Amino acid sequence: MFNSGGAIISLEYQLHDNNDRHMEFEEKRMDILDFANSEGATALFPVATVHMKVHGSGEFGVYSSIKPRGCLVDSRKINILYNARSGLVTFALPESEKQIQDVVIEI
Description:
Order of helices and strands: EEHHEEEEEEE
Distance between the termini: 16 Å
Number of domains: 1
Largest sheet: 5 strands, antiparallel
Number of strands: 9
Strand content: over 45%
């Protein structure tokens, strides 16, 4: 990871067990059963969530073996750039009056 304008205060991640989510989803909607068993099922649910508290602003980068589904900074969706060749994910941390910004990335 890199952050040209600040520092990472904390980093937490959570891996998701998609099998449990498929079962809950199938019980509620039987028409999704075929899709949940197909290759497209991973598109429904995130595999992992990374939560960081970051001090500062500027260009920020992390590495990921797959393209993230999205990124939130202080609960606002922001645009990301993903380089599939290197796995580098970059985005701009906006200037904020808050000293510490919450960054959430879903993979």
